[in-house]
Amino acid sequence: MLMNDLPEQVADWADILSGKSCLWQSGQLSCGHLSAIKGHLVLLAEHLNKSAVQQSLQVLDAAGIAVEVAGVKRVADRDVLSLRLSDWSLELKQQLQQVANGWDFACVPALPDANKPGLVLMDMDSTAIQIECIDEIARLAGVGEEVAAVTRAAMEGALPFSESLRRRVKALAGADAAIIDQVIANMPLMPGLITLVEGLKAMGWKVALASGGFTPFTGHLRHILALDADFANTLEIKDGRFSGEVLGNIVDAEAKARILLELAEHFNIEPSQTVAIGDGANDLLMLAQAGLGIALHAKPLVQEQAPVCFNQLSLEGVLGLLQAP
After folding, report:
1. How far is residue 176 from each of residues 70, 180, 237, measured CA to CA in Å?
2. Which of 67, 98, 109, 297 is the most exposed place for a label (fewest CB within 10 A)?
3. In the chain, alpha helices (H)
């Protein structure tokens, strides 16, 4: 079967490809399977069209990589096409990114197994929720612009996270701590968060937060979403006001990576079955440590270094990737 014979919408391929072992060769679909699988390419979009597949296959063909079709699914109202590859290289991500226009993809040597126990560890600010909580606290405290500028520098990797956090918290000194409740009351969840958490729980997976933010916010999310664990920083409060200090050790990049390993050991989960999701420079170590690291709408530095980048879909896309055939 030629590519031209397939429907324009990839979702319509499901019945055609069902139960078949197929190879893409020179623009044609034929029976067969790869003798050895060294990589995986998953394409995802709200509605995935044939052009996305054609452009991706051109990249693979130019690299001399044979492709086996693993299957087509509709997960969380998103199209998911899974391909197995005869070879894999780090350069493939950059090459595929050049043609990805309107869809997301993951090109990795291995994927976690949705049928085995697993762990997802997420950043909170701009990942599990749509805001940076400290920026919202600062805005209500009247120092919003000053703090937001430091936040941007930290997330882009221009400033060490621990230093940036202490500077931002210092700016809050004297503000009414009741601001925390105001922020919680207006804290917008990231699109797809509930879908992802519910899907992971149905798979029997563990879900946790590791945040450079603060415990009242991670604790609130843990409560309303029934998460398995949360880790964040503790703001010192004296006489109902912020002291301008952080208590205890700061949850920075190194801490997030360590928390991932410790949780995996605690829950007896294989390292290859761990997934980390984040958006800032302080998430990079955690993303690299995980079996699968996913950057969500990330800063440029993170886009360059993260194993997988989602720019079109939101957190529901993570569920699609994990449930890809």
Report:
1. 56, 9, 9
2. 98
3. 14-17, 50-62, 91-99, 133-141, 144-155, 161-170, 179-185, 193-203, 215-225, 253-266, 284-289, 300-305, 316-322
**Domain end residue (candidates: 108, 128, 149):** 108
User: Which residue among the candidates 123, 135, 230, 279 is catalytic per the annotation?
Assistant: 123
Distance CA(62)–CA(194), nearest Å, equals 40
**CB-based contact 230:217 (threshold 8 Å):** no
Element housing 269 (H / E): none
Q: How many domains does the chain have?
A: 2
What are the pLDDT digits (tens) for 111-131?
999 999 999 999 999 999 999
Structural domain includes residue 113? no
Find, among 29, 38, 22, 40, the residue nearest to 7 by Cα.
Answer: 29
User: Is 230 considered catalytic here?
Assistant: no
Catalytic: which of 79, 104, 125, 135?
Answer: 125
Q: The tokens 């208590």 sit on which residue?
A: 247
The answer on 133 and 97 residing in a single domain is no
- Are both 102 and 125 inside the same structural domain? no
pLDDT tens digits for range 140-165: 999 999 999 998 888 888 888 999 99
* Residue range of the domain that includes 232: 119-322
SS3 251: coil
Do 170 and 79 lie in one domain? The reply is: no
Locate 1 and state its tokens: 């079967």
Residue 131 and residue 38 in one domain: no
Kindly state whether residue 114 falls inside one of the protein's structural domains. Answer: no
pLDDT confidence band for 191 (50 / 70 / 90) = very high
Residue 62: CB atoms within 10 Å: 9
Q: Please say if 125 is a catalytic residue.
A: yes
